[in-house]
Amino acid sequence: MKPIEVLMAEHRVIERVLTALEVGTERLDQGGNVDPGFFIDATNFIRGFADGCHHQKEEGVLFKAMVQAGMPTEEGPIAVMLAEHEQARTFTRGLLDAAQRLQAGDEEAAAAVVHNARGYAALLRQHIAKEDGILFPMAASVISVSQQTEVEAAFQRLEREDAAEEIPDKYLALAEKLEHLVGS
Q: Which of 17, 105, 136, 155 has the fewest CB neighbours in a 10 Å radius?
């Protein structure tokens, strides 16, 4: 199912940023000098690409197709994924707030940066593993061929919109920048 391949490819980009975030967080936690702007840029990537582009495809298209195929949203895999998306958003808000406070000179905010960055990275790592290993194969088995075509068309519409705004290139460049900043 091509839409699943798209989502999994996006997971690989997100994992690159998670690695950079983990490296930067470890440095900060060990007392190293990490520009707070690094963490602000990481939240820009998370909000714009991971939550904006990627989760939009999952929540707005794939999960809806799975529900139409008979899967519940109040319990089970979709409910877990939606709850984890919300938890990720909470970590992201906390990370951005702490990074902005750190940038403004509040050295005590470093602990909150570390807490939220580690929480986000750990959550996303296991979340991606569940989607790749359980949810996506489940989606491929429950969504009919005609629905798969509709999901693929909806993804293509979203990608065309993103391409018109140069979103994919912008976030790929940001991922590379984050990796470069921490040498990951």
A: 105
Q: Measuring CA to CA, how many Å separate 175 from each of 48, 64, 94, 117, 171?
A: 11, 29, 20, 16, 6
Contact between 30 and 75 (Cβ < 8 Å) = no
143 DSSP assignment? S
Residue with tokens 């088995």: 141
* Percentages of the chain per state (helix, strand, coil), in multiples of 5: 85, 0, 15
As given in the structure block, the two tokens for residue 134 are 């359980």
Tell me the C-alpha distance between 167 and 49, whole Å: 8
Report whether 94 contacts 88 (CB < 8 A): no
- pTM, 2 dp: 0.93
Specify the amino acid at residue 33. N
Give whole-number Cα distances, 151 to 66, 100, 158, 182, in Å. 10, 38, 11, 37
Question: In this structure, what token pair is assigned to residue 133?
Answer: 């290993």
State whether the Cα torsion 73-76-77-79 is positive or negative. positive
SS3 32: coil
What pLDDT digit, counting tens, does each position of 155-182 carry? 888 877 766 566 678 888 999 999 998 9
pLDDT at 143 over 60: yes
